[in-house]
């Protein structure tokens, strides 16, 4: 236990004077001034006390676009300076603040890069927001299927896969991949970018989970610096920023700044939250001033944690083993993937044990493992509690066996009968999942998190997919897209799915 005593979180320091001059500082000055708000929002910085201390405090710096505070959709002042600072810190030609999350960034990037109705190369393990962009732009997707590693974890997309697809289909206008994945797997973005550009295609990288890359030796490099044309990153996932904050980075001239900004205005609210933007500005300033120090220290803390957990005998730290497998370029060790040896416990049972007995809330659970997200702002206490909990669970599993179905061996594949946008508009009907084989799906089905579809509207529902859905439901995982006829919780014995009415394969 003593080896964890120095696993403290990011050191608290006195606020930097430069940080005080940022957006949050200006908001505080306005709050404390005698300017009276005859403008939105309606709480007038005077939230009713019944709202509680947290909301009342937030309301004090919650404003709309007023004199002196710039306009996110046409920045010329403080917000323009904040976005330029972000582009410098992250290494982009241009960076846009996103207050509608990475989803808005994905919709913007795809819309700006790919003409309506075009063909686009898409990694099948992309987030559902990519599929929404495909639908909105009426695109024709060509899918790249990643291999599966131990525990059913999706491997990286190999540059050779991209090259082969682009050679077969020269009409493809853009390539969309996720790097890192939700599990921390990093593709060779530099090689993929070179391949895409030789074919005249734009590379879009969903790097929502990679905003922290590139700030210290030992970390994977950011895709922003590896040749990608458009990169979307969530600040809130791994950095100290408020939920729903993200960045869209643009590099080069393959996609014009004007086009990107035009679509950004479409997909983002016209009333952006200054609370969110102030948090983003603070986060960027912190990285600028202390990023290298914070993440260098974090890498040392991860070394100590992984070293301690290497003594587990019945639980496995998959994130220590996965970098040796597949075709990945690198791996994000801040994603701690924990699984059981010898099929002694399911992922969901491990998740519930950590939650209910130890009060440790994990990020994600699948059939084989649970995922914890670790950042420099985790406390030493948090690290110690996690290590001690895993050690206790590990000891309790000694000698136990629990038969279970093995993890997914390959990504389920099916045929697309209707374009996604047509399938969403087609007449629908609900049928028992057990009777859906051969019919055309009218809905997305996915585990959430991570929100990666098993099947999308317009694709044929196969027996393999039905078995997989039933398996996940039996294990108590959060399966979206199937329902119980009576509402409420879903049981594997009684499931319905929406299909295209009157259509079969």
Could you please describe the fold and organization of this structure?
- It is built from 16 helices and 19 strands.
- With 505 residues, it is of the alpha+beta class.
- Among the domains are: 105 residues, Aspartate Aminotransferase, domain 1 (Alpha-Beta Complex), CATH 3.90.1150.150; 85 residues, Molybdopterin biosynthesis moea protein, domain 2 (Alpha-Beta Complex).
- β2, α6 and β3 form a beta-alpha-beta unit.
- The longest helix has 36 residues.
- It is globular, with a radius of gyration of 24 Å.
- About 2% of the residues have low confidence.
Task: Write a concise synopsis of the structure shown.
With 505 residues, the protein is α+β, with helices and mostly antiparallel strands.
Q: Assembly state here? A: single chain
Instruction: Examine the secondary-structure arrangement and name the CATH architecture of the domain at 292-396.
Output: Alpha-Beta Complex
Question: Strand share of the residues?
Answer: 15-25%
Work out the helicity level. Answer: 25-40%
Count of strand segments: 19
Stretches where pLDDT is under 50 for at least 5 consecutive residues are: 12-19
Summed up, the helix count is: 16
The main sheet orders its strands as 1-8-7-6-4-2-3
CATH topology of the domain at 292-396: Aspartate Aminotransferase, domain 1
Q: Based on CA inertia axes, which overall geometry fits?
A: globular
Q: What's the pLDDT, averaged over the residues?
A: 91
Secondary structural class: alpha+beta
Rg: 24 Å
Largest sheet, in brief, is: 7 strands, mixed
